[in-house]
């Protein structure tokens, strides 16, 4: 409620003045909303928990290792996404084609967008939400609750869009689980989960916006992804499952070694 009161007076004029450019409206309003969220986090930390550095508790720390984890996550996200499309290409389900846009521009735009999305969503879901859950529930309950909340909040859209994109729900839950395990595998820091999230988004942005692939329709969309969305298909779920198992094993190893910071 407080966040809405801070956000609406600023966002409303943006909607009115920039109605002709929905993408710019989305970028500006989401940026402002996230800025308001950061301000409220500072208030929340000082007044609710008596802490002035709550972001550190969430795993957002400036350290060499956290930076290396972020780069590692980017690499893993890029590798898994590109590998998915390479496999589908080898199977004849998609065709790679010459980019329809300036590829360097697409890569740069994708990087900035993906890093922003990864940073914002990980700070919210694997930072604030997960921390609040872990204060009251077991690690397992917090893991699943965080993943389900993450998936559900991606469906705050018109009912017709919810129905159309419903096949992505299982993958979003699985991705939520994976990102929690990624955080726990890196000692409770957010670098790896931010990088992993951003890497997945960045790779898909390059392929999709750059128009580098064309679906051959030789197989059901339920295999390659409904509406050409890779996480809405069996192959996307399969690749995400491999990634999830890997991150879960890393998390378990870290926990057993006694180095995890929850």
Automatic annotation (TrEMBL):
It comes from Allocoleopsis franciscana PCC 7113. Residues 106-200 form the CAAX prenyl protease 2/Lysostaphin resistance protein A-like domain. The chain crosses the membrane at residues 29-49, 70-94, 162-182, 189-207, 230-247. This is CAAX amino terminal protease family. It holds the Pfam family Rce1-like. GO terms for molecular function: endopeptidase activity. Keywords: Hydrolase, Membrane, Protease, Transmembrane, Transmembrane helix. The keyword Protease applies. One of its GO terms (biological process) is CAAX-box protein maturation.
